[in-house]
Amino acid sequence: MLTVFWDQRGVVMMDFLAKGTTITGTYCTKLLLKLRKAIKTERHGMLTKDVRLLRDNTPVHNSHVAQTEAWSYGYEILPHPPYSPDLAPSDFHLFPTMKLFLKGKLFPDDEMQISEVVLATDATCQLLQMRSPQLCKAMGEVFDSCW
């Protein structure tokens, strides 16, 4: 399973969950620590500004341990109303385009699959950056109207 943290400039961090591993609150806390490190290296100065997380309403994201960890880093967790597709940018902007890059490809092993997913994600983000003025404006309007 792929977890992607991204913003209007592209991917900040990707994490691949090993087969047979369960996503837990503890796993989410480790991801948030990795994210913090990635922000320090990929987005210099961003930690001094507001870092906002928009996640879906899965129980693991809403677990006490995961929320406490996010708050301890100073991250603002944006509320995600149920049944709100306009607030799921990854579902509408990132993953469908990635699927186009991966369609019809067969992977002999996990390493090759991960490598191709990374390439597809990079290509998708480049495409989104070309469209980013419209996308970011639309996302900003959605966020501003909700918060």
From TrEMBL:
Signal peptide: none annotated. GO terms for molecular function: nucleic acid binding. This is Tc1-like transposase DDE domain-containing protein. It comes from Podarcis lilfordi (Lilford's wall lizard). The lineage of its organism: Eukaryota, Metazoa, Chordata, Craniata, Vertebrata.
